[in-house]
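Reply to dn_fold:

You asked what the input looked like. This is it:
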Amino acid sequence: MRKLSLVAVLVLPFLIGGSLHAQQFDVAFGLGTLTAPSASSASGNHAPVSLTGGAYPVVSADLLLKRQFGVSGELAWRGSQNLYGGFQPYRPLFYDINGIYAPKLGKHAAAEVMAGIGWESLRFYQPFTTCGAISCTDFVSSNHFMGHIGGGLRYYFLGHFFVRPEAHLYLVHNNEEFSSPRATRFGISLGYTFAPGF
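and this is what came back:
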C-alpha cells in the first residue's frame, strides 16, 4: 500500500489538473474473480499452486483526454487471504496503468479497450510484526512486473451512472510462485462519469 500511496501522491495532481481540460473522467468500484491455469507436470519450473479463485474487489479510474483516448489505472486485490501450499497465508494484489480507448456505442453505451503495465504484489503473512523506520508490517512481499490487457462494456442506466462487465488478462513476469505466468480476472463494476455536456 505504501507504493500505491506514493503513486497516488505523484499522479493525482496531474489527473486533477488534466481533468479540467479533459473530455471525461470516470471512477468505478467492482467485484470479480480470478482464473489461472491449474498446476500440472507440463507447467515447467512453476510451483504447483494456482491463482484461481477468490473474490477480487477492484477500484479503477480513467481520464479521457482526446477523441476517447486517455489513461487509466486499476487496483485489484483478493478480498480474503488464501493458503499457499496449504499452510502459508497470502494475498495477491494487481496494480496497472494503461492507455485506454473508450468509444461511444450510442447514447447509453461505450466500449473500453486498454493495455498497459503494472505489477503483481504477493503478500505472504507472518505470525509476527516487523517494524522499520516508517511503519510496521506482518507480511513479506514478492513483487513481479506484468503486462495487462483488458476491456469492458459500459451501460449507462441512470444519467452518469454505469454498470460495466469486464475481463482482464495479466501476464506476469517470473511468476515462479504459481503454476502459470497468466491469470484472467472477470468481473463487473459500478461507476460514474464526470464529463461536461455528457
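The first strand starts at residue 24 and ends at 35.
Hope that clears it up.
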